[in-house]
Design goal:
The protein is an alpha+beta fold. The protein contains twelve helices and eleven strands. The strands form three sheets. The protein has a five-stranded antiparallel sheet. A four-stranded antiparallel sheet has the order 3-9-6-7, with no helix packed on it. Helix 5 packs across helix 8 and helix 9 packs across helix 11. It is elongated, with a radius of gyration of 24 Å. GO terms for molecular function: DNA-binding transcription factor activity; sequence-specific DNA binding. This is AraC family transcriptional regulator. It holds the Pfam family HTH_18.
Length: 296
């Protein structure tokens, strides 16, 4: 697998002219795009807008075969592959070496956007109006990039990159809201998967189910699953797992005599004190207090 430490290496590998700047590169795609024919990683972020007609994009573990206008976000050292792309309209890709962000607020800000963790099938789908907003920001970046650079260029470019990221966060929120039917199905499948995990004995065998495990069972990335559930229910995937386990704990505490430690171990907790702290956080009293309260 190819790994590109510099944008010059990426350009050379794909037969592009050298980038105008060693730390940031803008690529416009008209109908067809070539990004090589194999998996690659790099020390850079990629922000792309491509309305695909053919070919595929893959990053993480998932392949994306095209749909309406979509945006994609790749973080440094994320495995990616883009083959034989044919576009309905023009597209673009912005490559930003991670070192270009040093000393700028975007260095910390960019790490807060969860969609860099999303898989390809969770790409951002844009409405025509939203596309216009993103294209407007891109053209401003492109104009600044192609002009003679001065002391203001970096701040202006990264300021508009930051705006693209903030708009993308807003548009993802809109996407979650507009996909309420999907959200409802995911919540049901999430609950059913947890129930099966518990009833099939996997809890005792494998321990507490992780968000990553639950997401894989639902064919989603962990970040997308949590964001989807948070938007729909106000609680993350981890919080839903905890709620389920505390509900089971309440049932066991009301049942035949068993110590809190035994119940904790039966629910997959390796550390009974951690179980007790989680129980108190969710219920407002310790497991022993809950048990005594319900016996009175």
């Amino acid at each position: 697998m190819a790994h590109f430490k510099t944008l010059s290496e990426l350009h050379q590998f794909n037969g592009y002219p050298p980038p105008e700047h060693p730390m940031i590169s803008l690529l416009r795609c008209t109908q067809r795009c070539s990004f090589g024919t194999s998996e690659f990683t790099g020390d850079f972020y990629m922000i792309g807008l491509k309305k695909m007609k053919a070919g595929f994009i893959r990053y993480g573990k998932t392949k994306y075969d095209g749909d309406s206008g979509s945006m994609y976000f790749i973080k440094p050292r994320q495995v990616a592959e883009m083959r034989n792309l044919e576009l309905e309209d023009d597209g673009f890709a912005i490559y930003i070496h991670e070192d270009y962000l040093n000393g700028h607020p975007l260095h910390a800000e960019i790490k807060k956007y969860p969609y860099f963790e999303y898989e390809a099938n969770e790409a951002l789908h844009l409405s025509p109006k939203e596309e216009q907003i993103i294209w407007g920001l891109y053209r401003t970046i492109e104009s600044e990039y192609n002009n003679y650079p001065d002391e203001y260029s970096k701040d202006i470019i990264l300021g508009h990159v930051g705006a693209i990221l903030r708009y993308s966060q807003r548009f993802y929120k809109r996407q979650f809201i507009h996909r309420t039917e999907l959200s409802g199905r995911i919540i049901s499948r999430f609950t059913n998967t947890l129930t099966h995990y518990f009833e099939s004995g996997q809890l005792a065998q494998k321990g507490l189910p992780t968000v990553k495990f639950m997401a894989a069972e639902l064919n989603l990335s962990a970040s997308y699953l949590s964001d989807l559930l948070k938007q729909e229910t106000g609680k993350t995937a981890l919080e839903h797992i905890h709620i389920f386990l505390i509900s089971e704990a309440k049932h066991l505490l009301n049942g035949p005599a068993a110590t809190v430690a035994e119940i904790a171990y039966s629910l997959g907790f390796d550390n009974p004190p951690y179980f007790s702290r989680l129980f108190r956080k969710e219920v407002g009293m310790s497991p022993n207090e809950y048990k005594k309260y319900n016996l009175n």
